[in-house]
Write a structure and sequence with these properties.
With about 210 residues, this protein is of the alpha/beta class. Helix content is about 50%, strand content about 10%. A 4-stranded parallel β-sheet has the order 2-1-3-4. The protein starts with a strand and ends in a 9-residue tail after the last helix. The model has no long low-confidence stretch (mean pLDDT about 95).
Length: about 210
Amino acid sequence: MAAEIVVGYFLEDIAHARFLQTLVERMATEQNIPRIALRHELRNVTGGAGTALSELRAFVRDVRRSQVHTFDVLVVAIDSNCHSHVERRNQIQRIIEQSGYPGSVAFAIPDPHIERWYLEDARALQQALQSDILPRVPAYKCERGLYKQALRQALKEAGVITLLGGAEYGDDIANAIDLYKLGKADAAFKHFADSLRQALQPFKSSLGN
């Protein structure tokens, strides 16, 4: 293997981290980039949107000052949380552009919250929980805690005791989801998948087995 791809993450919480790292690996393998070629650097995984964005600002400032290096791929995940996808993306994009950050960026903006992505592919959730439950996915509504509660209810029905609200199953769900179907069903997911594939594209031919 000729080199490695360093992927940096600025995320709201552990539910983002467990889910998105696995998706990055899956989409890399789609482009014939082996998982072992990826090195994940989690720069922020707690504190919600405010902390993630604050840490992102500090990072791109340090890049501008040549105090740290860019990542090969930068993943920023912020729930839309009742803001539009465009509004949230523009908020992140301004931070990136004002700093002159030169690297590739993939934007993950679950609408309204990451737990909706956990729930939307029933088969994937069943496989991850090893249960035949049929999760109830609320109709789209921007309500604080709505999808978190729906995920907790699905876990309860599956007889699962969780300490992280379901985040501990994030990697299993991400490994099992149908990327194409979820992209068709959820525009925010498709935006993320498209931006990630674009960010990974330049490395497709530079790494080999």
